[in-house]
Amino acid sequence: xxxxxxxxxxxxxxxxxxxxxxxxxxxxxxxxxxxxxxxxxxxxxxxxxxxxxxxxxxxxxxxxxxxxxxxxxxxxxxxxxxxxxxxxxxxxxxxxxxxxxxxxxxxxxxxxxxxxxxxxxxxxxxxxxxxx
Length: 132
Known about the structure:
By secondary structure, this protein is α/β, with parallel strands linked by helices. It has 2 helices and 8 strands. It folds into 2 domains: 54 residues, 2-Layer Sandwich (Signal recognition particle alu RNA binding heterodimer, srp9/1), CATH 3.30.720.120; 58 residues, 2,3-Dihydroxybiphenyl 1,2-Dioxygenase, domain 1 (Roll).
């Protein structure tokens, strides 16, 4: 089994796609007007209109009701990314902070209220050569 993607269902695909184009600094792939995606070497984030899940009826996902998932992206420098995005963010949850386990994280909400975490892993400790 290959993990394919995480899909966010939204009432406003254009707004959410523009937001993630800003965050990722990458244009979305748009195979259909009701669907957009951002593919990387390690994961895919898909954004889809409620029309893509209408056939599920009462079991369809409800946009804007996510309270249990964090969309996470590893970045080279979380402080630089946060500075680049800060003016466009409406809901900052955590400014760049070093977590107890060493990651440096910044968290904010996308326009639908989904929690987004940009993080940088700690640098590997430098080792010294005792023979030098």
